[in-house]
Specification:
The chain is an alpha/beta fold. The protein folds into 2 domains: 8-82, 60s Ribosomal Protein L30, Chain: A (2-Layer Sandwich), CATH 3.30.1330.30; 90-253, SPOUT methyltransferase, trefoil knot domain (Alpha/beta knot, 3-Layer(aba) Sandwich). It has helices at residues 15-25, 42-53, 63-69, 90-99, 115-127, 145-151, 166-175, 213-217, 236-253; strands at 11-13, 29-35, 58-61, 78-82, 105-110, 132-136, 160-163, 179-183, 189-190, 200-205, 221-224. The strands form 2 sheets. Strands 7-6-5-10-8-11-9 form a 7-stranded parallel beta sheet, with helices on both faces. Helix 1 (15-25) crosses helix 6 (145-151). The radius of gyration is 20 Å and the shape is elongated.
């Protein structure tokens, strides 16, 4: 390859993720490395054609080089290097809220560590029309190649806002008229019994730990997902999916 990768977070790999990046924001791609066997794969050939049409350099490399670059990740024969766009912060959220012509529908993730969980949450949020995802900058996973791959293009379409002080951001959201609804197994209200049709932010905690104390204190309501079986809890991305789609259902019929 032309040069070693110093920061893997500058890259996206995998067929869906790279194609989504090309279709949604080709201007943010510097160059693409493609398996030298791409001509035998229509999807890789389509990526190469779209890249060249957007004047993005395409470099043929061996499959083993891509294996090495992605540290064993399932790259499917393609890696793209992204330009470093500034991450969205608190001011970006303020501008986003000001530009909405409908009630805000937000997802707050309080300290998720697993990139697979974050990617799954972003993908579901995008599918249900969530306007933005807010997460703390510290002690939480950010946007990585694994997140992009699992999200399957949703990262390019859904604003992901990292904040330095989540409690302060929650206060700002409350001042803007947004109801803060936390999810916790100890919540006294069922998810299905609360009104989610207006301006809301759904808040979920980290894997295994749940909501932090200060985050919980800033919630207007704490709700739970009813459990009828023997398991005591759900994976955070599964729980997020249930909450997001219950909100979508209510907002659709309101």
């Amino acid at each position: 390859m032309k040069e070693p990768i110093n920061d893997l977070n500058e890259y996206v790999y995998g067929l869906h993720a790279v194609m989504a990046a090309l279709k949604m924001n080709a201007g943010n791609i510097d160059e693409i490395w493609l398996s030298s066997h791409a001509g035998k794969n229509k999807r890789l050939s389509d990526i190469a054609g779209l890249a060249r049409a957007s004047h993005i350099p395409v470099h043929p490399v061996t499959h083993s080089e891509l294996d090495m670059v992605t540290d064993g990740g399932r790259h499917q024969g393609v890696v793209a290097r992204l330009k470093q766009e500034p991450a969205m912060h608190e001011t970006g959220l303020t501008g986003l809220l000001a530009g909405l012509d409908q009630d805000p529908f937000l997802l707050v993730l309080d300290g998720i560590q697993d990139p697979h969980n974050l990617g799954a949450c972003i993908r579901t949020a995008n599918a249900a029309g969530v306007h933005a995802i807010i997460a703390p900058k510290d002690r939480a996973v950010g946007i990585t190649p694994v997140v992009r791959k699992v999200a399957s293009g949703a990262v390019e379409a859904t604003p992901f806002i990292q904040v330095t002080n989540l409690a302060r951001t929650l206060r700002m959201m409350k001042d803007a008229g947004i109801w803060i609804i936390g999810l916790d197994e100890a919540g006294e209200t069922l998810l299905f019994d609360i009104d989610l049709s207006g301006s809301i932010a759904l808040v979920l905690g980290a894997e295994g730990k749940g909501l932090r104390r200060l985050t919980r204190e800033h919630c207007d309501f704490i709700v739970n997902i009813p459990m009828a079986g023997s398991v005591e809890s759900l994976n955070v991305s599964v729980a997020a999916g249930i909450c997001i789609y219950e909100a979508w259902r209510q907002r659709r019929t309101s």
